[in-house]
């Protein structure tokens, strides 16, 4: 049997941990088009903070090579593609990274090779969109000369408990034999085990609905937060009470950002619409969740006016800017909806976040970030992201006076410390 040689294409939040996990057992070449990322990783520096310096050092001196040169992946026989799958301005799938990675792999593909996609897509994408590109640029025939698989990724950035080998992995392949091979490959590194789906389409659909389901459930509690705000009922208290029932689903309201939960439902919706059915709940959920930044700002301004009489010269501090807690990832963060809507009302906005790269954030969103807690006093403080370190902040130090509005989006602080929570 030929020695397994794996190439992982795209070394981001998903690809790097995948490459590291496989390098425990196999020869792995990690490839990324971002030269800066490749240089940093070769210096054992993972800016996503998913992989430690020691782990990188250990793998890079053994089984792992990290490169931005295509010739270095030519010898591989298994290609795992973990590139981004964002949406375009009109919210339709942007398959450019996926198709350009497929083209590149097509150009180096040899007979007998297997290409496994891990990026989140809609059902049908691998076989309808990626396979023709692989065929075109390799000159090889699908399921005769080369094969494909789809094994969606479930890792949760910033979560040091549910690491890659502890999460059951769904696998699939383009023929029954290849499905077994792919399943064996993942079983060899995933301690939690695998679930072999009957087809690639089933595996693709399973991933996209996992995230769509979360999105819809959060949309429901976000809608409740809007309703209960009008009724002057504390949503967290309602959810705490309801959660005592054995089958109540314990979701909490909040901003839904990032590149997964707020994006993937559009992949499913777009494909569904193209096939003649316009989803109602999925798109309705998206609309509710996308409206939460504005809702928060409406709440804050109402509270500010009620205590200060107007919105003139008011200073607001936002705690947190990332799309989720305890991680530096600010892609598609909805905190920017709060920032922009506050600015539209001519409020002065400061943002404190010790997790993010402030230069990158400012470049992306034109908003300065404080990496140290500002030595200023505020009319309103918004807890936007539940970074653990924010527990240490003494809110009194930041309050202008006893009227300062403290709004807690994440039910992070105890109720007696805040004015209102989402
Ligand atoms: N981050 C998550 O929590 C998560 C979880 C499950 C699934 N996913 C899915 O996994 C995929 C990757 O997500 P991510 O968070 O790792 O993205 P990412 O942006 O962190 O990383 C992607 C990497 O791919 C590189 N890249 C882009 N185009 C390339 C190309 N043509 N060739 C080689 N490299 C290329 C980028 O430079 C980047 O380093 C997406 O489909 C995402 O939806 C992400």
Report on the architecture of this protein.
The chain has three domains: 5-205, NAD(P)-binding Rossmann-like Domain (Rossmann fold), CATH 3.40.50; 208-289, N-(1-d-carboxylethyl)-l-norvaline Dehydrogenase, domain 2; 291-421, Rossmann fold (3-Layer(aba) Sandwich), CATH 3.40.50. It is built from 13 helices and 13 strands. 44% of the residues are buried. It has helices at residues 15-22, 35-42, 53-61, 96-108, 125-138, 176-187, 200-230, 235-242, 264-274, 281-290, 292-308, 335-344, 358-365, and strands at 5-9, 27-31, 64-67, 78-81, 114-117, 147-150, 169-171, 194-196, 315-319, 348-352, 380-383, 405-408, 420-421. It is α/β, with parallel strands linked by helices and 422 residues long. The N and C termini lie far apart (58 Å). Helix 7 crosses helix 9 and helix 11 packs across helix 12.
Return the average pLDDT rounded to an integer. 96
User: What is the total domain count?
Assistant: 3
CATH second-level architecture of the largest domain: 3-Layer(aba) Sandwich
Shape summary: globular
- The count of DSSP E runs of length 2 or more, i.e. the number of strands, is 13
> Mind telling me the CATH class of the largest domain?
Alpha Beta
CATH-derived topology of the largest domain: Rossmann fold
Radius of gyration, in angstroms, nearest whole number: 23 Å
CATH superfamily of the largest domain, by name, is: NAD(P)-binding Rossmann-like Domain
Spatially, the strands of the biggest sheet line up as 3-2-1-4-5-6
Briefly note the structural class of the backbone. alpha/beta
Strand percentage, roughly? 5-15%
Q: How far is the N terminus from the C terminus?
A: 58 Å
Structure annotation, total helices: 13
Described by strand count, sense and barrel closure, the largest sheet is:
6 strands, parallel
List ligands, each type once.
nicotinamide-adenine-dinucleotide
Which percent bin holds the helix content? 25-40%
């Amino acid at each position: 049997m030929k020695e397994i040689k794996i190439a992982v294409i795209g070394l981001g939040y998903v690809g790097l941990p995948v490459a590291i996990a496989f390098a425990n057992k196999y020869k792995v070449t990690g490839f990324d088009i971002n030269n800066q990322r490749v240089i940093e990783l070769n210096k054992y520096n993972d800016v996503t903070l998913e992989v430690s310096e020691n782990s990188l050092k250990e793998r890079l001196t053994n089984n792992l090579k990290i490169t931005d040169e295509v010739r270095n992946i030519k010898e591989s026989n298994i290609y795992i593609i973990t590139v981004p799958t964002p949406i375009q301005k009109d919210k339709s799938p942007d398959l450019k990274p996926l198709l350009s990675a497929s083209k590149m792999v097509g150009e180096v593909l040899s007979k007998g090779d297997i290409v496994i996609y891990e990026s989140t897509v809609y059902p049908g994408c691998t076989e309808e969109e990626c396979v023709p590109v692989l065929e075109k640029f390799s000159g090889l025939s699908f399921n005769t000369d080369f094969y494909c698989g789809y094994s969606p990724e479930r890792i949760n950035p910033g979560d040091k408990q549910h690491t890659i080998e502890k999460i059951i992995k769904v696998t699939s392949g383009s023929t029954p034999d290849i499905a077994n091979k792919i399943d064996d490959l993942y079983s060899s590194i995933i301690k939690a085990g695998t679930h072999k789906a009957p087809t690639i389409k089933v595996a693709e659909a399973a991933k996209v609905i996992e995230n769509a389901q979360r999105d819809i459930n959060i949309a429901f509690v976000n809608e409740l937060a809007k309703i209960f705000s009008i009724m002057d009922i504390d949503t967290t208290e309602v959810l705490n009470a309801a959660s005592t029932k054995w089958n109540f689903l314990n979701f909490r309201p909040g901003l839904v950002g990032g590149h997964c939960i707020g994006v993937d439902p559009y992949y499913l919706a777009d494909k569904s619409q193209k096939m003649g059915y316009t989803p109602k709940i999925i798109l309705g959920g998206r609309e509710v969740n996308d409206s939460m930044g504005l809702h928060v700002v409406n709440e804050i301004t109402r509270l500010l006016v009620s205590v200060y009489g107007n919105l003139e010269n008011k200073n607001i501090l936002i705690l947190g800017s990332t799309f989720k807690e305890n991680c530096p990832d600010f892609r598609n963060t909805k905190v920017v909806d709060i920032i922009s809507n506050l600015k539209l009302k001519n409020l002065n906005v400061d943002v404190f976040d010790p997790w993010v790269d402030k230069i990158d954030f400012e470049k992306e969103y034109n908003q300065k970030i404080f990496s140290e807690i500002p030595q200023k006093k505020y009319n309103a403080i918004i807890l936007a992201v539940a970074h653990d370190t924010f527990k240490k902040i003494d809110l009194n130090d930041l309050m202008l006076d006893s009227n300062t509005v403290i709004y807690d989006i994440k039910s992070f602080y105890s109720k007696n410390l805040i004015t209102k929570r989402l």
